[in-house]
Specification:
This protein is of the alpha+beta class. It is built from six helices and twelve strands. It has a single domain, classed as Sandwich (Jelly Rolls). The strands form three sheets. The protein has a seven-stranded mixed β-sheet. A three-stranded antiparallel β-sheet has the order 9-6-11, with no helix packed on it. Strands 7-8 form a two-stranded antiparallel ribbon.
């Protein structure tokens, strides 16, 4: 399945025109994803090239970015990313900017894969949102809630989890699913089409928390084809 562009007819996504609207719009009317669409400055590829090769996730701070020997286009892109970090920190959030060369994978995934390449919902014990922006490399992907099915509700998967659990399908089993985050992972239904979060757009998406007025936004990190460039990703 190749991701579509941002779907114009999906009522759970609302486009906004400013950071104030992105941050200040309450969840309601079924909307669980807000997108501030923006024109991304050129130069992010030059930033990745200047950072050089690496492994795993490399966290970037302002000092590292400003020390890079890059041209004017990349300088403008650096300021664009630093401005996003400042906006989120001013809201008492803790954003992280990563250069992602590779994500860790589940070494023994079992019946449900729980790494970031699986469609999933983020969760929190209190009201909280996830903020995302991809500046370079394959963008994050979303899945419509009506095209997603919890993997723990698939009969074959649930039977395999019950065998692993070694007990009955009762409250203790449901606690086991929650403790291992199995209940947060989703499978696309037949014919589902993921959509792309795009490059440069700042997203605020709903998480799974007690009392949330909307369902969580189902999303994943993209599975990069061989030779794909490293990602520049802001997340909070």
């Amino acid at each position: 399945m190749s991701p579509l562009e941002l779907p114009p007819d999906y009522p759970r996504i609302r486009r906004v025109g400013s950071f104030a609207e992105l941050a200040g719009t309450p969840w309601g009317d079924g909307v669980n994803a807000l997108c501030w669409e923006r024109e991304l400055p050129a130069g992010c590829g030059e930033i990745v090239a200047a950072l050089g090769a690496g492994e795993g996730l490399v966290t970037l701070d302002e000092a590292r970015l400003r020390s890079l020997r890059v041209g004017p286009a990349a300088r403008a892109a650096i300021e664009f990313m630093l401005a996003d970090l400042r906006l989120l920190r001013e809201r008492d959030l803790d954003p992280v900017l990563n250069c992602i060369h590779a994500y860790p994978r589940d070494e023994e995934p079992g019946p449900v894969v729980t790494d970031v390449f699986s469609f999933h919902a983020d969760s929190a014990p209190v009201p909280a949102d996830t903020w995302l922006c991809t500046y370079h490399g394959p963008p994050s992907e979303g899945l419509r809630n009506d095209e997603a099915q919890r993997r723990v509700d698939l009969p074959a998967t649930r039977a395999a989890l019950l065998r692993e659990f070694g007990g009955a399908d009762d409250e203790a089993f449901r606690d086991y699913l929650r403790e291992n985050c199995y209940d947060l992972h989703y499978a696309p239904v037949a014919g589902a089409r993921p959509f792309s979060f795009g490059l440069g757009h700042l997203w605020r998406i709903a998480t799974d928390y007690p009392g949330s007025p909307v369902p969580p936004c189902v999303h994943r990190a993209p599975t990069p084809p061989p030779g794909s460039p490293s990602r520049l990703l802001l997340i909070s």
